[in-house]
Fold CarboxypepD_reg-like domain-containing protein.
Amino acid sequence: MMLNNNSKYYNLFFLLFISCLTYAQNTANGKITDAKTNKEISGVDIFINDNSTPFLKTSASSFIIQSDSIIYKLKFSKKNYSTETVTITPETAENIFVKLSQEKENTIAEIVIHNEKPKYKNKKENPAYAIMQEVWKRKRNNGLEKFDTYTYKEYEKIQFDANNLDSAFMSKKIFNKLDFIFDYADSTASGKIGLPIFLNESMYENFGENKPGKKTKRLLVAQKTSGFQDNQVITITAKNLYRDINIYDNTLNYFDIGFPSPVGTNGFSTYDYNLTDTISIHGENAYKIRYQPKRKDVLAFQGYLYIDTDSYAVLGATLKSTQKINVNFINSISTELEYDNPDDNTFLPKKFITEIELTPFAKKRTSKSIIAKRSVDYSQYEFNKPLDDKVFTRREEEYDDKFVDKDDAYWVKARPDSLSKSEQGVYEMLDRLQQTPKFNRIVKIYETLASGYYNAFKGIDIGPIFSIYGKNEVEGDRIRLGARTYFGQNDPWRVQFYTAYGFKDQQVKYGAEARYMFNRVNRFMIGAGTKRDIEQLGVQLTTDDGIMARTFASSTLFARGENASLSSINKTNIFAAIEPWKNFQVRVDGTLQSIKSANPEKFSLMYYRNGDLRKTLNDSHVTLSLIARPGAKFSQTGVDRYEHGTLAPTIILKYTRGIEGLFNGDFNYNRLQFMFYKPVLIGSWGKTMISFEAGKTFDNVPLGLQNVIPGNQSYSLAQNTFAQLNYYEFVADTYSTLHLEHHFNGKILSFIPLIKKLKLREIAFIRSAYGTLSDASKAINVDGFKYSAPSEQIYFEYGFGIENIGIGNLRIFRVDFNWRGNYLDRPDISTFGIKAGFQVGF
């Protein structure tokens, strides 16, 4: 009996043992790495036993296999790696550690290294071309895209140094009582003096999710600025100089100008390449390839590429501008890039250093200049760790002024490298300067020019200073004075007002507005304002109801033909706005306004209402605006923000409802409007500005409320207007306009021997408009039938411009030559015109 019972137990134990043995050989797990670098490898095909079809392709370095059949062998295969086979037993089925060895490529038969620039009949003879072909075949993407989630830290340091100083400069009167700053100066290699004048350090935590949804967040957790904590204009100016770049892209963005990448697939059309050496970088063997532009007059770089000899990954690169770089205010650019390559398909940024030499006037090497240096270190990458949704939620504490304040102990630990002696001196020097009245006056002048406002005393700014004088036919000479409250860059409220006086009409005009923001996270704010002024209507299609916008009438000093079509406006507005999502604003405006002609003898806005002739239009309307700015970057958290330079688009959708009877409103009407604006880099051929607008008014309204195709009778440049149209020449119930303007950045003129020395840049543009106007909308106005829409054919203008006119680095003048394409039989038109203006930019 005992024996029989024991036999049952033995049989049960045997069955359990066989089951466990079978299970063990039906499953396997482990990790795959590179035999040489120990880096994790993904994208490996795993074959079970002797099957010719892979069982799975790994998406990460770790793998788990569960099969219906017993596994006794696994084969691991990946392109450019030797195939590895592992025998599986119950004892070895778990924690398998597979190392794959890279195969040597046979596609390059022979590498010939040249220290001097050789001449080749064609690029296929160049050994560097064979190497770059392999780089293009394996074009890598940012590794952050392959993981479900990721986090990493980013340390950014921006430093400005005054360069090429000498004893004569240091003895100038401007430095009286400021001469102690030269105690912090260092001698440069040229024997001149370099003086650190600005230092900004920032720590960011980056979070990302690719699955199931796409989410990213870059959280500023600490910031330290030398002496300029309250002067964000300078800090923003510094950060605006830089853009993020990817060396594998065909075009690299510097200052929103496209430079051809030496690693781009079309690089051989711009650059000459020369394989000069093989070196070791962080234990990796690398080809060292020197590249330089075929023509020195184009926007391009010169430098070295460091390409891994086994994987053909870019380990590093140097990019330096040529001596003839045609960028305003810039003498030179240099960038050093360092990448980590975790596998064959991806890269991770490791360290970027960019140095820019800025000079306001001359491009000579000996000119006094500012060296702006930015270094970014990326570290502590972590992947595929669960992230709480709260990580991506905007929090109130992130917008607190003190959120980024950290003590010295934090920075000593956070910095990847300690500060140099000169960098440490910047903080001390700027602290001393802050106590110097003369220095504060200099900073105040800069702030005034940058912001357009002069800080008269605590909490009050006077301005905008650039709107003080204007001229038009109704007012004659016009003086405008304004002010605003300003206690700091993060003010949650602001009050603004202005008053203006016309010496011809002897009338006082005014405007005032107050705004208050309740929440820094979703930027919920309300505002109200009122004004009485003379305005040039019909110069903008997608208008806003803001009170403080500068009127076109006050900015026109010289114009072609007579311009009597000015309007007298009495307007009151209240609004509420909120950003439920980052860079997406919902705004509701309620507006009451009365509009009449400011010059009734020459310009009529009279209309019929219920058979009565009216000269003053009363309008009450509500507007819902949806405004999207995807990719835009802003500084500050107050009611006003500074925007960083980007290529972000602007997308606006507006619905306006006019309400008859509300506060004496004369008309019910419905209007829908759409606007899209986007600058686009077109490789090394420059940048195209795209602007599209469309809209429809669904009801009959008088001229004061109609959609007017924007004309421009001034001799100055005005964005999104038609240079050869008269004011009110085209009026439309339904309209669409398209403006295309391409900036070639001197690409064409650089081929002309004598012209290229002037460093001029060419522009080409075309503008078009189409619309319709009903007979009922014409009939409602006294002079209605003299107005029409471009309905017979699409109205268009075309032309070209020359920009970058000036001397040295100061090239801020632009001239446009405009031709009218059709509707040439109309009276009092201009078929050709020249516009000019200032255009500050790189």
The longest helix spans residues 2-24.
